[in-house]
Amino acid sequence: MAEQPEPGFADIAALGFEDALAELERIVRQLEEGRGKLDEAISSYERGTALRRHCEAKLREAQAKVERITITADGSVGREPARID
After folding, report:
1. What is the CA angle 16-21-24, rounded to 5?
2. Is 57 helix (H, G, I), strand (E, B) or coil?
3. Which residues lie below 8 Å from residue 41, measured CB to CB, with a gap of 6+?
4. What is the DSSP letter of 36?
5. Backbone dihedral angles phi then psi of residue 32, each to the nearest 5 degrees
6. Nearest CA to 68 among 77, 55, 81, 50?
7. pLDDT tens, 9-42?
8. 3 state DSSP class of 68
9. Which neighbouring-strand residues pair with 83?
């Protein structure tokens, strides 16, 4: 199922995981340093939340694609989804 962009943040859906994570890290640093006005901080927090959800969705997609090679009891080789927790 495709990820639905959050209202006002449609551009986030086009970001790759690494770019979204880098922007999220920048926002977190900015908020931790207390730079900017309150309204800007709230907007940054909202965008950061959307970026976090986007990154989590990208990680779930990647996890669904990763498979683990297994050897069954009879010695044959098989594959199963990886369990990444």
Report:
1. 125
2. helix
3. 31
4. S
5. -65, -35
6. 81
7. 889 999 999 999 999 999 999 999 997 899 999 9
8. strand
9. none
The β-bridge partners of 70 are 78
E runs forming strands in the chain: 67-71, 77-81
| Among 7, 30, 27, 31, residue whose Cα is nearest residue 19 | 27
Return d(Cα 14, Cα 52) in angstroms, integer: 14
Distance CA(50)–CA(72), nearest Å, equals 42
Torsion sign, CA atoms 26, 27, 31, 36: positive
Model confidence pLDDT, tens digit, residues 42-70: 999 999 999 999 999 999 888 777 777 77
Where in the chain are the domains?
10-81
Supply 44's token pair. Answer: 């940054």
CA 72: distance to chain centroid?
33
3-state secondary structure of 67: strand
